[in-house]
Amino acid sequence: MQGLKENKTQFLLLVLVNAFVGAMVGMERSILPEFGKTVFSLSAASALTSFIVAFGISKAISNYAVGILSRKFTRKQILVTGWLLASPVPFILMYANHWNWIIVANIFLGITQGLTWSTTVVMKIDLVGSKNRGLAMGINEFAGYLSVGLAAYLSAQIASQFGYAFYPFIPGLFFVLAGLVISLFWVNDTASFIQKETAQSSIPLLKNIWASTSWKHRNLGSVTLNGLVNNLNDGVMWGLVPLLLVQRSFSIAEVGIVAGLYPIVWGISQLFTGKMGDLFCKKQLITFGMLLQALAIVLLVLFSSFAGAIIAAVLLGLGTGLVYPNFLTVVAENAHPTQRAEIMGVFRFWRDGGYVIGALLSGFLADWMGLNWALYAVAAVTAGAGLVANIRMCCTLKLFWRSQECMPAV
User: Fold this and answer.
1) Which H, E and C letters describe the chain, residue by residue?
2) Structural domain of residue 221, as residue ranges?
3) CB 3.0–4.6 Å: which of 149, 174, 236, 388 could bond 362 by disulfide?
4) pTM of the complete model
5) What's the CATH code of the domain at 48?
């Protein structure tokens, strides 16, 4: 039987697994750009953000692969494979003697993130069904991004005490081992839930999953665009903001606090914003969240003090928290159960492609125009995507302004 309460043990195990998935990214988040400058003497922003390009491409492709692989393999098999592929990452980061090894580590990291995070999302949707789906996605993303923030703070603290090389990546060994053991021995597959839900579903099948999810379907296409832009600015936060803060003479510990606070607020807020998606119009939550992100990025440039950076990080975390779980629930409620993994894979392919576009665009703009103008440009793109969602998406509820009742085109 589907339901959050009915499957709470398995659901909580998947939440714990996703926490370790998030921690794997978090251990890099606050230190890798400065690691490149300090250890490998890189200076150009485009070179320093190259690891994000590698991560984004491999994660986007593996997200899409989950949908294809789900036709032949079980969810659990894909999850365990993801963790096995994660096992070399901490060792490569610890013993890297050239920046190219950091690129290789992030290719592996992107693959594992796509396989593991995508699979845990789909498995949780399988377990809970339509009731409280927003709450379930909020809990999932809360665990993942809270762990990103905590691991980012931890790695920055270790770097401040022992330097950027070797030691900050040791916790990754524990993250991989814990995620693999839980996935292998305690997580159960969810195939039986898909069969039951399929028999009861009235959601129409999409004739062309790629085209509909990428743009044609008004709801799916809109969240795909906004997901891409959201991760575009997240890639900027990952790659450029630590450089901006160091340029302003922030200490390593202060950079770690700002870099860690943003995903922590993002994670915690999703406990509430996910449930809001069960009650209110998602397009309005997404629009407001994207506009709040744009404002936060502008404030990050305008406020040069540590307190100002904290305020900007909190607002950015809140804005991202508003949109992230609601992206996933919009995808789930517009996807037939038999197509869910593939539709989610296409959405996440484009969403995480935002890391690639963000890293390339921001690195180019930062080298050409400087960090401040690069961030202003990203803020403008973020606001524009939010307005597209408000114009194009459909829902039957209203929250801040009138929302016309409609059926999204397939």
Assistant:
1) CCCCCCCHHHHHHHHHHHHHHHHHHHHHHCCHHHHHHHHHCCCCHHHHCHHHHHHHHHHHHHHHHHHHHCCCCCHHHHHHHHHHHHCHHHHHHHHCCCHHHHHHHHHHHHHHHHHHHHHHHHHHHHHHCCCCHHHHHHHHHHHHHHHHHHHHHHHHHHHHHHCCCCHHHCHHHHHHHHHHHHHHHCCCCCHHHHHHHHHHCCCCCCCCHHHHHHHHCHHHHHHHHHHHHHHHHHHHHHHCHHHHHHHCCCCHHHHHHHHHHHHHHHHHHHHHHHHHHHHCCHHHHHHHHHHHHHHHHHHHHHCCCHHHHHHHHHHHHHHHHHHHHHHHHHHHHCCCHHHHHHHHHHHHHHHHHHHHHHHHHHHHHHHHHCHHHHHHHHHHHHHHHHHHHHHHCCCCCCCCCCCCCCCCCC
2) 8-392
3) 236
4) 0.85
5) 1.20.1250.20
